[in-house]
Amino acid sequence: MDSKICKIFFFYKRLLRNMNYSRFLTAVSMARRPSPIRILTELQQRSPPSLISLAGGAPNPNTFPFHSATIQMKNGETVLFDETMMKRALQYSGSSGIPELVSWMKLLQMRLHDPPTAAYSPERGQMELCVTTGSQEGLCKVFEMLVSPGDNVLLDAPTYSGTLAAVQPLGCNIINVPSDQYGMIPDALRDILARWDPADEQKPGSSVPRVLYTIPNGGNPTGASMTAERKQKVYELAQNYDFLIIEDDPYYFLQFQKPWAPTFLSMDVDGRVIRTDSFSKILSSGLRIGFVTGPKPLVDRLVLHIQASTMHTSTFTQLMVSQLLQVWGQEGFLKHIDRVGRRWSTVSSSHCTFRAKLFS
Questions:
Q1: How far apart are CA 118 and CA 316, in angstroms?
Q2: Chain segment 109-142, per-residue pLDDT in tens
Q3: What is the pLDDT of residues 154-187, one digit of tens each?
Q4: Cα(36)–Cα(40) distance, rounded to whole angstroms?
Q5: Where are the domains of the chain?
Q6: 298 phi, psi to nearest 5 deg
């Protein structure tokens, strides 16, 4: 089914029912409040350079030992950190990410996924995005925002060991959903959910699962990729049972076949998808740049957790990536993705050929 038709179908099926995001939050997440000092930092970011603030605890950049830097790229282009840029790169920054990087990635998400929620009001689940220190930080914080002890959580079986490391300490009941070479099996998910009545979803203390986690492309450890048809069926079950979908998609940019498969975010007419992306596999794993895209009420809660923990992803690496993306533009970025994808496609073919010879 065409993705545009799917969006229209799900839109009318939903009948404009608003999401009750508070019912998905843990008690800890509900208790989080904005950090005053972090708010001051973000206000200072928007202030003119002439402002001298004594409120945010920012150190004097003139005491930093670094002056400037020039980063040479493989294609001969350069990213320049002059003295002014370096002072900013070594200073505190806002918890949701530096504004120019957040804006750039929002435009990229809209181009790649065309999420229906981009046009929604904030309270209805408008698409929002924040930068995280790798997608693993975002993933951990999403689970801590949504999963309480005793909750039933739906996971791909088998799934990424890092996910289990994040989820198991939360004291939840992990329900494994079988998968095959085409990813999570919707009929198996339907059979699991059949033990509950969808009408019970809103009842206090209900054990109906509120969260489903999946790696839809190149699933770790199986390498399976979910078909568009299966995603549509899983999304419809999410609507029927009112649970959120965590779309962990670090391998999205490494799909070998085009056009790329439609994502859960692209069909999210309800505002029930939280998506994690990563630059680790395509730019650098050491930069630790990931980003979370989802409904604004949930992303805002995630940012409150960042305010109280890591405070923000490294300003230096954010600026480095932002400067690179500004040089490339979207077209240059996508060309780079194609080059990386072709390389891994060649490696994959070579491995398959070697394995066939080995076991023939």
A1: 29
A2: 999 999 999 999 999 999 999 999 999 999 999 9
A3: 999 999 999 999 999 999 999 999 999 999 999 9
A4: 6
A5: 3-40+94-313
A6: -85, -40
Higher pLDDT: 44 or 150? It is 150
In the Cβ-directed half-sphere of 103, how many Cα atoms lie within 13 Å? 7
Strands 211-214 and 183-184: unpaired
Reply yes or no on domain 3-40+94-313 having CATH 1.10.357.10: no
- CB-CB contact of 312 with 94 (8 Å): yes
> Whole-number mean pLDDT of the chain?
91
Tokens standing for residue 115: 């999420």
Q: How confident is the model at residue 38 (pLDDT cuts 50, 70, 90)?
A: confident
Question: Which residue in 150, 149, 113 sits closest to 129, CA to CA?
Answer: 113
Long-range contacts: 117-123, Cβ < 8 Å, 24+? 117/268, 117/269, 117/271, 117/295, 120/271, 122/296, 122/297, 123/18, 123/297
* Closest listed residue to residue 29, CA positions, set 313, 297, 275, 245: 297
User: In degrees to the nearest 10, what's the CA dihedral of 315, 321, 323, 325?
Assistant: -150
Q: Which of 115, 110, 127, 121 is nearest to 16 (CA)?
A: 121
Q: What is the pLDDT of residue 15?
A: 46
